[in-house]
Amino acid sequence: MYDEAAKCPFKLLERKRAIEKQIVPVFSVKVTQPTKRLARRRRTKPTRKWLQIGGAIEEKEVENKEGSGAVSGADTAAAEIKARVPLSYSAPRTHCELHTAILLLLLSLPASLEAHDLRLTPSTTSQGLAGSAASQTMAPPPPSAAVSEVQVESVKFPPSVKPPGSAKTHFLGGAGVRGLEIQGKFIKFTAIGVYLEDGALPSLAAKWSGKSAEELADCVEFFRDIVTGPFEKFSRVTMILPLTGAQYAEKVTENCVKYWQSVGTYTDAEAAAVEKFCKIFKDKTFPPGSSILFTQSPNGSLTITFSEDGSVPEASNTVIENRQLTEAVLESMIGKHGVSPQAKTSLASRIRELLKGCEKKADEVDKNVAAKVDIVSVA
Q1: Could you give the strand order of the β-sheet that contains 291-296, starting from the edge strand earlier in sequence?
Q2: Could you report the per-residue pLDDT of 299-333, keeping only the tens digit for each?
Q3: DSSP E strands: which ranges in 116-205?
Q4: Which DSSP symbol is given to 119?
Q5: Which residues of 50-62 are buried (b: 16+ CB within 10 A; e: fewer)?
Q6: Which terminal Cβ of the chain has fewer Cβ within 10 Å, N or C?
Q7: Bridge partners, 296 (sequence order)
Q8: Quick check: 231 and 298 in contact, CB under 8 A?
Q9: Largest separation between any pair of C-alpha atoms in the chain
């Protein structure tokens, strides 16, 4: 006799309910069976698979009795568990083993999810434990939330900004003054702040993790990797003394053109970009406290914005599409012959501290993984 509601043999339904009584409301048991046609072909009764604690976790099927198409919150919870808790465990054969397995799985679940929102399916793999342990270790906060502001003279650089022409948050990498020694006296002209998008750290960590701040500050290649890295950069140049736009544009482009000509990369495209750059600054005058803002995109676009009070407006003034000029603007600040050694030192020191935080977090994850392995081995 068949139970029409369950679409399965009556005896199998009794077994299923008996098993559920042992572990409900903690978990539900998924029972699988062949189709009626396949059962008739094999001339065998459908069989159920033994419950396994761990392994792959499927989204719970939603029973929509009214046909409204509404989705239960169990789907979202199960999907999150599927991504975050890929536990595996061998099939329990006794009630003691079953209870132990359930306890281990409960200890590994995020506190925000309900265990009864899950449906488990069998799996015999022993992989995925490291992913579970890592998921329980909270991800480190983004660099924009971990850094502090920097004050250069009377100019304050906030710990994070959202630059014009970008939808991403950038953290303050470092800041310093630009000045010249005139008649034995150091004259400060501008304050420079360099910001990097939150995704810059993984790109830099692969090569520069473990280096000291002094090693980074003395390494031309480190700053070159920042200039050319596959992430957005944002530079803010704030005036300490008044400066005209023509003077600023001339200083930035003069050395760039000489370098491009020496290496044979100065083409008509670069000439047109330099001309557009100088034209933008031609009629500008920057009093103390005003700022020039550059957003450098990894695709080679340079977004230029002006601010009278040092704030960061949402709208940009213009965009120049030229990779060499885009990189040259930042290179002139922190490159081999950068105009602000203080900004370079600050950048190296702060990036080193952020990389150190990433290393510490990675060590914590490794320890948690090792602890999980020990628990399962004992079990």
Answers
A1: 160-161, 170-182, 185-197, 233-239, 291-296, 301-307, 318-321
A2: 999 999 999 987 888 888 899 999 999 999 999 99
A3: 119-120, 150-152, 155-157, 160-161, 170-182, 185-197
A4: E
A5: ebbbbbebebbee
A6: N
A7: 233, 302
A8: yes
A9: 105
Cα→Cα distances 345→89, 146, 281, Å = 51, 19, 29
Q: Give, in order, the Cα–Cα distances in Å from 361 to each of 137, 141, 305, 367, 368.
A: 9, 11, 37, 10, 11
Residue 307 pairs with which residues in a beta bridge? 291
In 3D space, the residue among 340, 105, 328 whose CA is nearest the CA of residue 240 turns out to be 340
Look at residue 178 in the predicted model and tell me its pLDDT: 94
Q: Which residue has the tokens 């957003």?
A: 295
Query: Two tokens at 308?
Result: 């009278």
pTM of the predicted protein model: 0.61
Contacts of 12 (CB under 8 A, 6+ apart): 31, 33, 45, 46, 48
Return the number of other C-beta atoms located less than 10 Å from residue 269's C-beta: 14
Of the pLDDT bands very low, low, confident and very high (cuts 50, 70, 90), residue 115 is very low
Q: Which amino acid is at 173?
A: G
pLDDT digits (tens, 9 = 90+) for 168-219: 999 999 999 999 888 889 999 999 999 999 889 999 998 999 999 999 999 9
CA-to-CA dists, residue 98 to 23, 78, 104, 374, angstroms: 9, 21, 10, 19
**Cβ proximity of 234 and 296 under 8 Å:** yes
Answer for the pair 77, 57: CB distance below 8 angstroms, yes or no: no
- DSSP label at 92? P
* CA dist., res. 261 & res. 222, Å (int): 24
DSSP class of residue 116?
A: G
The partner residues of 175 in beta bridges, in order of sequence, read 193
